[in-house]
C-alpha cells in the first residue's frame, strides 16, 4: 500500500466527512434468514451468543495454554476463544525477535544443556504464580518435558525472562506446579536416568537410575528462580508423573504420581515385551507424598548437602527425617489434583475406571501413628491404600485429569478413552453429568480451577484428536480446544477452536482483570533483564562508535525513519546495531530486518534491543522496518554498506530528483491544506468530552508530539527557503508534511473512538 500525497490527503478528507454513514447498512437479512441459510438451530444461536464478542469487546478470562513441542505458550481469551499471542519460551520466534536480538538470545542461552543450544522445548503445564493459593496475575511458569527445564514468563509484558536447567534430570513431566505462595515451583522427573551425565548400563537401573522431584525456589520480588536455594528429592526410578501442591490443611506438602513402578526397562528389539506391557503389569503404582516445608527448614538449618549448585536430599535422609511417603494408587495414574479446600487429593488412573479420592487427614493420621503396610525396595514407608482413601468413584474409561467447580465438592474429570467429560461429586462420590467431546480429551480447565477459589463458569476440553471437526488441511491436524458452558446443571458445548501450534497439554485460565500488562517500556529498556539498557539512545544522540574492529551503532526508531539510515563499516568488522524505539504511543512497534544476516528485531515502544553480527562480506545490505507503522512505513529503510578492505570513499550523496521553488511552494500548499484537515479534527475532539476517554487522551498526546515534530521540520524548510536552497527546503517541507499526516492519522483514530463510544458534545 503506497499512497501518493494527493491520494492520502483525499483519503484523510474522505474519512473525516464519511464517518457514521455505514452503520445503518447492516443488512436487511433477518436472524431467521441467516439461520436457514447456514443451517443453524436455536441451540447453536444460544451457544453463539455465549461466545460471540462484538468488536472491541473483551474476554472475561485469559487462558495460558502450553504450546506442546512448539516450545511456546498460547494466550487466548475465554469465552471468545480468540488467540491473542504466542509467547516464545524455549523456541526462537521471529515476530517477537526472540532468539534474534542479543537480549533474548541471552535467555535462550541459559537453557543450554551439556553445552548445546536447544531451539525447542516440549511444554506441558503452565502455572500462574499464587498468593494465598489464589492467582495473583504476576508470573506464569512452564516446564519442558524433553529437556528438563522451567521458564519464568512475566505477565507485565508476557515475555520470557529466565530459563533454568535441572542438573539432575534427563526428562521431566510433573511441572510446573506452584506452592500456595509461589515459594516453590514443583518439577518431577518422568523417565528415570542416572543423575550423572556418564554412561550407566541398564543392568544398573535399580541401583543408579533415579527419579526425582525438584522444588525450585522463587524470589517473587525479583521475579526469578533461585537455583542456589532450590532442593531436589532423590526418588526411586519409578516414572514420576504429575504433581500438585497441598493447600489449606495440606499446605506444606506435595503430591506426585508415578507409573511404571515395575521399573521395567523395555527391549522390544531383543524380543522382549515392550515398555507398554512391562509398565502396566501391577495393579497399583505409587503416589509420592513429600513434606516440602520441613525439607525447606532442613535446608535452612544447613542439614542438606549441595550438589551441582543446589540442595539434594538423598532418599535415606528423606526417609529418616519423615519427608517422604508412598501410597498405592491404581492403575498407571496420570493426574493428581488437590481439592480447593486442601482436604482431598484426587488421583486418576489411566487404566482404571475409577477415580481415587484420598483424604489428607487419613494420610496424616497414618503417618502420625506410623501405620504403614510396608516399605518399597528403597525403604520408603508405604501407607495402605485403604487407610488413606476417602472414596473411589467409577467415572468411565481412561480418567486423566480433574478440575474443580465453584460449587462445593463438584469436579470435572477428563475421560480419554470415552471422549467425555464427567461432572461428579467427590464428597458424596456420585456422577452428576457427562458430555461428549471430540475427541480423546487430555487435560481440561475450569476458570481458576486449580486455585483455592475456583470460578467455574466455563470449561475448556483439550482434545488430543480433532479428526473430522475442521476443514481438512493435510495429514497433520490442528488440536481441538472445546469450550463448554458449566454454569448450569447440564454441561453445554459452545465452541470448537482449532489450535495449530504443537500439542498443548494443560491450560490455566485467570480472571482478565487480575492482569495489568504494560503498554510501553520505560524508555531505553532491556526487557529481558528488567533494567535500562546500556545501549539506550535518546533522540538526537544517535551515533556510530568504532573501537578496533568493533562498530557499535546507537540508533533510534520513530515513525517513519530509522536513525541512522546509512551505516558504513568495513569488511571483517563486528557490528552491533542497538535500536531504541522512541515511541510512547500504544501499539507503535517497529521492526528491523536486514538482508542476509539473520537479523530480525521487534522493538516495542520504549524498548532497546541489539543485533550483533560479523560483516564478513563486502556488499550492500538494505534494512527496513517490518511493521506497517504509518503511511510512510515503506520508506522506513536504510543501507548497511560493507566496504571492501582498503576502500577509498568517492563521491557524496546523489539525488535522483532536483527541486525548484515551484516544487517547494506546491508542497507548502499541500501542507496548508492538510493543516486545515487537522484543525477540523482537533475542533471535533476538543468540542467533545474527550478527556473522559483515556485512550483518546493518549492519542491526543501522541498527536501533539507529532505536531511538534512538524513544527521543527517546518522551521528547517523555511530556513532553507530563505537561503534559496530549494532542494533542502522542498525535502524538509515534505518531512513537515509527513509529521502532519501522522498527526491527522492519530486525530482521526481519536475522532472515530469518540464517535463509537458516544462522546458528548461540550461546546
Ligand atoms: S499431560 S502427557 Cu496429561 Cu499433563 Cu503431559
Ligand atoms: Cu516502523 Cu514500519
Description:
The protein has 763 residues and is an alpha+beta fold. It folds into 4 domains: 5-51, no CATH class; 61-514, 7 Propeller (Methylamine Dehydrogenase, Chain H), CATH 2.130.10; 525-643, Cupredoxins -  blue copper proteins (Immunoglobulin-like, Sandwich), CATH 2.60.40; 661-756. The protein has 13 helices and 45 strands. The strands form 11 sheets. Strands 8, 9, 10, 11, 12, 16 and 17 form a 7-stranded mixed β-sheet that branches. Strands 36, 37, 38, 40 and 43 form a 5-stranded mixed β-sheet that branches. Strands 39-45-44-41-42 form a 5-stranded mixed β-sheet, with no helix packed on it. α1 packs parallel to α11 (661-686) and α11 (661-686) packs parallel to α13 (726-756). The chain is globular and about 100 Å long. The model is unreliable at 1-9 and 13-25 (pLDDT under 50). Bound molecules: (dicuprio-$l^{3}-sulfanyl)-sulfanyl-copper and dinuclear copper ion (CUA). The site of (dicuprio-$l^{3}-sulfanyl)-sulfanyl-copper (RUQ) has 11 residues, from β25 and β29.
How many individual β-strands?
Answer: 45
- Bound small-molecule species: (dicuprio-$l^{3}-sulfanyl)-sulfanyl-copper, dinuclear copper ion
At CATH's second level, what is the architecture of the largest domain?
A: 7 Propeller
Q: Would you tell me the overall average pLDDT?
A: 94
CATH topology of the largest domain: Methylamine Dehydrogenase, Chain H
Radius of gyration: 31 Å
Main location: other
Subcellular location: Cell envelope
Signal peptide: 1-27
Domain EfeO-type cupredoxin-like: 560-642
Amino acid at each position: 500500500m503506497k499512497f501518493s500525497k494527493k491520494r492520502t490527503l483525499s483519503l484523510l478528507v474522505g474519512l473525516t466527512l464519511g464517518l457514521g454513514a455505514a452503520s445503518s447498512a447492516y443488512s436487511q437479512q433477518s436472524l431467521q434468514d441467516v439461520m436457514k441459510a447456514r443451517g443453524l438451530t436455536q441451540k447453536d444461536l444460544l451457544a453463539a451468543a455465549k461466545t460471540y464478542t462484538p468488536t472491541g469487546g473483551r474476554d472475561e478470562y485469559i487462558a495460558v495454554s502450553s504450546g506442546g513441542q512448539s516450545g511456546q505458550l498460547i494466550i487466548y481469551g475465554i469465552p471468545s476463544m480468540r488467540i491473542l499471542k504466542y509467547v516464545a519460551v524455549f523456541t526462537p520466534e521471529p515476530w517477537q525477535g526472540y532468539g534474534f536480538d542479543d537480549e533474548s538470545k541471552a535467555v535462550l542461552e541459559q537453557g543450554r544443556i551439556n553445552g548445546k543450544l536447544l531451539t525447542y522445548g516440549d511444554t506441558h503445564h503452565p502455572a500462574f504464580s499464587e498468593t494465598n493459593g489464589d492467582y495473583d496475575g504476576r508470573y506464569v511458569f512452564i516446564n519442558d518435558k524433553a529437556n528438563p527445564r522451567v521458564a519464568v514468563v512475566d505477565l507485565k509484558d508476557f515475555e520470557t525472562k529466565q530459563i533454568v536447567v535441572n542438573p539432575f534430570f534427563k526428562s521431566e513431566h510433573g511441572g510446573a506446579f506452584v506452592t500456595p505462595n509461589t515459594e516453590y515451583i514443583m518439577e518431577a522427573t518422568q523417565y528415570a536416568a542416572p543423575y550423572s551425565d556418564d554412561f550407566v548400563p541398564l543392568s544398573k537401573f535399580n541401583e543408579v537410575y533415579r527419579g526425582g522431584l525438584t522444588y525450585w525456589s522463587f524470589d517473587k520480588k525479583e521475579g526469578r528462580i533461585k537455583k542456589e536455594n532450590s532442593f531436589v528429592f532423590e526418588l526411586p526410578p519409578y516414572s514420576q508423573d504429575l504433581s500438585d501442591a497441598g493447600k489449606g490443611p495440606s499446605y506444606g506438602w506435595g503430591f506426585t504420581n508415578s507409573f511404571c513402578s515395575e521399573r521395567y526397562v523395555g527391549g522390544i528389539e531383543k524380543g522382549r515385551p515392550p515398555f507398554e506391557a512391562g509398565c502396566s503389569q501391577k495393579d497399583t503404582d505409587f503416589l509420592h507424598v513429600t513434606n516440602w516445608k520441613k525439607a525447606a527448614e532442613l535446608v535452612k538449618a544447613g542439614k542438606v548437602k549441595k550438589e551441582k549448585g543446589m540442595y539434594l536430599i538423598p532418599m535415606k535422609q528423606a526417609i529418616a527425617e519423615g519427608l517422604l511417603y508412598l501410597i498405592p494408587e491404581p492403575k498407571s495414574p496420570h493426574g493428581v489434583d488437590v481439592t480447593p479446600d486442601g482436604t482431598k487429593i484426587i488421583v486418576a488412573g489411566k487404566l482404571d475406571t475409577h477415580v481415587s479420592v484420598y483424604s489428607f487427614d487419613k494420610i496424616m493420621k497414618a503417618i502420625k501413628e506410623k501405620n504403614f503396610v510396608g516399605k518399597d525396595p528403597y525403604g520408603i514407608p508405604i501407607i495402605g491404600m485403604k487407610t488413606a482413601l476417602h472414596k473411589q468413584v467409577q467415572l468411565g474409561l481412561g480418567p486423566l485429569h480433574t478440575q474443580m467447580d465453584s460449587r462445593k465438592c463438584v469436579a470435572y474429570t477428563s475421560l480419554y478413552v470415552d471422549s467425555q467429560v464427567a461432572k461428579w461429586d467427590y464428597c458424596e462420590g456420585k456422577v452428576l453429568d457427562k458430555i461428549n467431546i471430540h475427541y480423546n480429551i487430555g487435560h481440561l480447565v475450569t476458570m481458576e480451577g486449580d486455585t483455592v477459589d475456583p470460578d467455574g463458569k466455563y470449561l475448556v476440553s483439550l482434545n488430543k484428536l480433532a479428526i473430522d471437526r475442521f476443514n481438512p488441511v493435510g495429514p497433520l491436524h490442528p488440536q481441538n480446544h472445546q469450550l463448554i458452558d458449566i454454569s448450569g446443571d447440564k454441561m453445554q458445548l459452545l465452541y470448537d477452536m482449532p489450535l495449530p501450534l504443537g500439542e498443548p497439554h494443560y491450560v490455566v485460565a485467570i480472571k482478565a482483570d487480575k492482569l495489568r500488562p504494560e503498554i510501553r517500556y520505560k524508555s531505553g529498556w532491556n526487557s529481558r533483564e528488567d533494567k535500562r539498557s546500556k545501549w539506550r539512545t535518546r533522540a538526537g544522540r544517535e551515533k556510530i562508535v568504532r573501537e578496533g574492529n568493533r562498530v557499535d551503532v546507537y540508533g533510534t526508531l520513530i515513525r517513519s525513519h530509522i536513525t541512522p539510515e546509512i551505516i558504513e563499516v568495513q569488511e571483517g568488522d563486528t557490528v552491533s546495531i542497538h535500536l531504541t524505539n522512541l515511541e510512547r504511543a500504544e501499539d507503535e512497534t517497529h521492526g528491523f530486518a536486514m538482508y542476509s544476516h539473520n537479523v530480525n528485531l521487534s522493538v516495542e515502544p520504549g524498548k532497546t534491543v541489539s543485533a550483533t553480527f560479523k560483516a564478513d562480506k563486502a556488499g550492500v545490505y538494505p534494512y527496513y522496518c517490518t511493521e506497517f507503522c504509518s503511511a510512510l512505513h515503506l520508506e522506513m529503510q536504510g543501507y548497511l554498506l560493507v566496504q571492501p578492505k582498503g576502500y577509498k570513499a568517492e563521491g557524496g550523496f546523489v539525488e535522483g530528483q532536483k527541486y525548484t521553488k515551484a516544487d517547494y511552494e506546491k508542497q507548502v500548499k499541500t501542507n496548508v491544506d492538510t493543516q486545515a484537515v487537522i484543525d477540523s479534527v482537533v475542533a471535533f475532539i476538543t468540542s467533545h468530552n474527550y478527556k473522559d476517554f483515556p485512550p483518546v487522551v493518549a492519542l491526543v498526546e501522541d498527536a501533539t508530539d507529532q505536531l511538534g515534530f512538524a513544527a521543527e521540520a517546518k522551521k528547517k524548510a523555511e530556513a532553507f527557503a530563505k537561503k534559496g536552497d530549494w532542494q533542502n527546503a522542498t525535502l524538509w517541507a515534505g518531512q513537515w508534511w509527513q509529521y502532519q499526516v501522522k498527526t491527522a492519522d492519530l486525530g482521526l483514530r481519536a475522532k472515530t473512538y469518540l464517535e463509537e463510544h458516544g462522546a458528548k458534545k461540550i461546546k
